[in-house]
Amino acid sequence: xxxxxxGSIAFDAIKTPFGERERILGGAATHFxxxxxxxxxxxxxxxxxxxxxxxxxxxxxxxxxxxxxIEYVEGGRTFFWxxxxxxxxxxAKTLDTQLNVFGDFQPKLSEGSRxxxxxxLANIQPDLQREVRExxxxxQVVALDSMNYWIESARDSLVKxxxxxxxxxxxxxxxxxxxxxxxxxxxxxxxxxMGPSVVVAKxxxxxxxxxxxxxxxxxxxxxxxxxxxxxxxxxxxxxxFLGYLDSAGRSLDEGTLRRAMTYGSTLASFWVEAFGSxxxxxxxxxxxxxxxxxxxxITTIESVPTG
Amino acid sequence: xxxxxxGSIAFDAIKTPFGERERILGGAATHFxxxxxxxxxxxxxxxxxxxxxxxxxxxxxxxxxxxxxIEYVEGGRTFFWxxxxxxxxxxAKTLDTQLNVFGDFQPKLSEGSRxxxxxxLANIQPDLQREVRExxxxxQVVALDSMNYWIESARDSLVKxxxxxxxxxxxxxxxxxxxxxxxxxxxxxxxxxMGPSVVVAKxxxxxxxxxxxxxxxxxxxxxxxxxxxxxxxxxxxxxxFLGYLDSAGRSLDEGTLRRAMTYGSTLASFWVEAFGSxxxxxxxxxxxxxxxxxxxxITTIESVPTG
Lengths: 307, 307
Known about the structure:
Order of helices and strands of chain A: EEEHEHEEEHEHEHHEHHEEEHHHH
Strand order of the largest sheet of chain A: 5-4-1-8-9-10-11-12-13
Largest sheet of chain A: 9 strands, mixed
Radius of gyration of chain A: 18 Å
Oligomer: homodimer
Shape of chain A: globular
Structural class of chain A: alpha/beta
Distance between the termini of chain A: 50 Å
Strand content of chain A: 15-25%
């Protein structure tokens, strides 16, 4: 079993009401890789510059992530993002974006990455996502994430790319924007008509909902008294979800998908407890499975009592 | 078993993208009574005017609601509200509010209503809620709802009233406003420090979450392709919740509260399928129990597979 992720590798500067970090490892592919690494073999594909060194590789290697396809651009600098969260932590204000080597990124997958049974196309330009998907001849299950920027600026290409994948991860607002349908159930149905058989609606502090042709499943976010930094929550969610799915044989049956949702939510709940991926770097599989069980307990409904 | 509700009885004019009604029966106490009537004996306390006639009483009597404490104000007119919902149905724009007889409402409970084992203080001025609470010598369990208007204009009185009840129903924004705490887990803890042992956070399209001193439970909203009119959703939720709770002996143990949450969400999901209480007037207990079981199915997580 093996899972390839293609997307951004970055340095982030993050400020929240609970503290700040001037320069920590970030990027969708990084968060995703670390979260998925608790379940399966992960290969990460993305560009870095001269400023990406031993310490950064060490974080990925400590979790067993295969970094052979990290593309080093000599003389370049790694993608940099600076953002600040207000007190409610619900939305980030971007203070600075320096695309650097990410701006000219043309993903080239090695044979190993092309042969992964599962592929995650993190949030990059939809034409590039499609090129990667076409290179990935071994991929039995493919998922993608995207964002409002691509829905607005490259909708046709994004719809075409969505037609080539099995699972779509988008937040509620993006699903509504993409389909121009305010009702979420109808919106996800429209996305499934584009091709995918599974749509996962990310709902931030309200958790996530999963839609298939004949099933629905929703999970609240794990109740936390202290959320330090929501950066990477969505990517760690997808990482936990797809990492588990790969480890479970990639079947898209309802039971497996529900467990995948729960592992995704579990990973995301740890991710937001500290800055960037700091909590994920310290995490153990035992902690993950304990919280999975807590999720079960806080969502169990008893039968209708008779009488 | 018996449940008394004190609150508004109204006529509503409602416009949504799916149609409109010029004048239908509304008001928090009405929606609550009808929803709770599927589970227990309900007594409704609220003021009406000359325009409230046989047809309106008939709706309540058809569901067995005791209307002895509906206070008829001769020469007065019933509370009237006109509102419009935009396409996303998430918030109502108030077009007209005529308090009429509700503006001078001084609740007077008959002996029957005072002796109900359970009391719901719907959203009225907090001083009045407290007076009703003091009259209700038979009430073993008391719950209240409120709104942003009272949090802003009568906070001290509201906090005092909250100190006299067992359960609080508020939406997320109201809980945060009341406690000045953006984290919902901490916000509900602060409300419990005021006195109540149970806080229910209403979350609209995302369902509801229940907090006690040592338990948490969340339930998504039932996924509906067609939401016609959200008016009364929160009151029918509270009605289903507290109606079931009364029928189950008013124990605040975790299993009973989870079932109450599920019945509340079930009632609210029917309520929004048609204008005002129209769907609730046609509803059967069998439909309610079928949807309860569907809720169980869409929220069940399987155990962590071993191996």
